[in-house]
């Protein structure tokens, strides 16, 4: 399987899962009635929100895998992203910005890779 096909499969699975969990939660409780973790029916939207957040973390991690070539760096960032969420993600972007050479285009943050 090519990388393109693997990514297409991953993101099709994410999109399909999020559509299904949204339908599942919507059938149990309208989104406008969600009140957090305070009562029984509210857990459906909490579950859907957590799935959405963690799929976002996975999506960001795919970019980290592109940027970082070493398995050790990928592993550390995976653990950080899955445990700290957006704190780790913001830290990663700040680190990438700090490593940007003077005069380099900002697009390099997204497209350049670390040396092996």
Description of the structure:
72% of the residues lie in helices and 0% in strands. It has 116 residues and is mainly α. The radius of gyration is 18 Å and the shape is elongated. The chain starts with a helix and ends in a 5-residue tail after the last helix. The longest helix has 26 residues, at 3-28. The chain is built from five helices and no strands. Helix 1 (3-28) runs antiparallel to helix 2, helix 2 (43-67) packs antiparallel against helix 3 (71-84) and helix 3 (71-84) packs across helix 4 (86-98). It has one domain (3-111). The protein has helices at 3-28, 43-67, 71-84, 86-98, 107-111.
Helix-strand layout with pairing:
Layout: H1 3-28, H2 43-67, H3 71-84, H4 86-98, H5 107-111
Helix pairs in contact: 1-2, 2-3, 3-4
Distance between the termini: 23 Å
Low-confidence stretches: none
Q: How much strand content do the residues show?
A: under 5%
Question: Gyration radius, to the nearest Å?
Answer: 18 Å
Global morphology: elongated
Order of helices and strands: HHHHH
Largest sheet: none
Helix content: over 70%
The assigned structural class equals mainly alpha
**If you average the pLDDT, what whole number results?**
89
Number of helices: 5
How many domains, in number, for the residues? Answer: 1
Number of strands: 0
